What we know:
Layout: H1 8-55, H2 58-65, H3 72-84, E1 88-93, E2 98-100, H4 116-119, E3 124-130, E4 133-143, E5 149-158, H5 159-198, H6 204-220, E6 224-228, E7 234-237, H7 239-245, H8 262-269, E8 274-281, E9 284-295, E10 298-308, H9 310-348, H10 352-370, H11 380-395, E11 399-402, H12 415-435, E12 442-450, E13 453-460, H13 489-499, E14 503-508, E15 517-522, H14 534-550
Parallel strand pairs: 11-12
Antiparallel strand pairs: 1-2, 1-5, 3-4, 4-5, 6-7, 6-10, 8-9, 9-10, 12-13, 13-15, 14-15
Amino acid sequence: xxxxxMPFLRQVLALQIGLLVLVVGVGFALVGWLLDTTxxxxxxxxxxxxxxxVASDDTLGEAVERDDPEHVVQAxxxxxxxxxGALFVVVTDENGLRLAHPNPDELGKRVSTDPSGPLSGREVxxxxxxxxxxxxxxxxxxxxxxxxxxxxxxxxxxxxxxxAALLLLLGIAGAFAGGALLLGVAGSTLLIRLLKRRxxxxxxxxxxELMREREAVLHGIGEGVLAVDATGHxxxxxxxxARLLGVAVPAGAHVDTLDLPPRLRAALAGDGxxxxxxxxxxxxxxxxNQRVVRRDGTDLGRVLTLRDxxxxxxxxxxxxxxxxxxxxxRAQRHExxxxxxxxxxxxxxxxxxxAVEYLQALSDGPVAALGTGAEAIRDxxxxxxxxxxxARAQEKAVTLRVGETSWVPGKVxxxxxxxxxxxxxxxxxxxxxxxxxxxxxxxxxxxxxxGRTLHVSVVDTGDGVPNRLRDAVFAEGVSTRDGESxxxxxxxxxxxxxxxxxxxxxxxxxxxxxxAVFVARLPQVLAETASDPAEGGHEAAEGAGDAAEVGS
Length: 552
């Protein structure tokens, strides 16, 4: 069975304790060496100072020169030894013979150490072993009144005294080093416990594995994830979120400095949560959900998840268009069935003239409903779409008409994008006309083909766009009416137009005789057609341009 490895935190603790012991041990040894060297030097200098003091006595030099018949040298040396606590005070003559020594038996004998240094005029300090043992010594030359060297004075302090002082200092230093070592071990233990608590007891390989899993999950999922801390700074953003938002989101940046859609910015700045929030970012429609993260009652920040709903929104638009077309066809089917029954009855009763008049009225009906401008629109899809919108407008007591200057000779090849732009503009215009103060309420739509480009102009009889909203009317969440789900129509219309390379603009915010005028340019949405007579096309183009400028 394989031996289980030591946990990483225990390894760190053992390493820290080992380093502490090593550092404290080396430091203590260094301090001991410095103390030993310093104490030796201090005692040597002390011995040298005592020797200088003894040698400064002129009478001592005179007595040594006369071979000390009165035994003055021994007496003075003993007094100096006792006064200073020295191990010995030795005085010799110029031949190195002792004239003073703590042991009277050594008098008259040659000193045990080399006296040549002091006898030649030099002062000597060292630690040597003599007849009294190891001692720190200071030796100086002894001079008479004529400044002639007549001997030497040697003073020594017992090495045991030096060792005692060293041991005392080492004890103090050892106590300090031991306390520092214990404090370091205690600190290391507390640090390891803190790390264990912060890492939830996980080993480094566990943390590395969690990091790899986090990266794999965050950057491998199909949703964008944007996390901000409690102060509003970005703590994490995966690649999918950056791709969906279309902007760089560096970690640590404040959300106020990021070019985010207004709804997402407001959600991140708020205190609550958000579900299925629709936002437009560039050419994408996003669904966002936000959750507030709290732990033990502490606000840790917010996590915003993003999903790309562009394809779904496209399918939704297409489904709405098909549903509208289906409703229009269903209504027309019932209407035509009733008309066929009427026509059949007229023919069966031999009312031929009335039947012909009835057919003539039926052929003028669709054009009359949409206006005379509908005759120049050859695309059946646009006819059906506008017919459905006309029926919806009538339900709201609003008249929808196609401008007389409209001219679309070709077929629409991008019906989803066209109906998205046209439908949002028409729906907004119908609502504005319904809520406006002018009566009768109406909406006029002008459609003009320019090659494969379709130009759209929509004007209503509403109150126009307020001054405060004119610069931001296409921004997500901006609406002239209150409501949480409003403010997306124009943003989606502009997004659809720009996806084609075109645009939607506010041509006129409204005036005294008409409401707001919105124009759109949709390139490459019409099929190529043979040129109509230049004169007719030119006149239609001029008329459509005049309609876009006037707006009614």
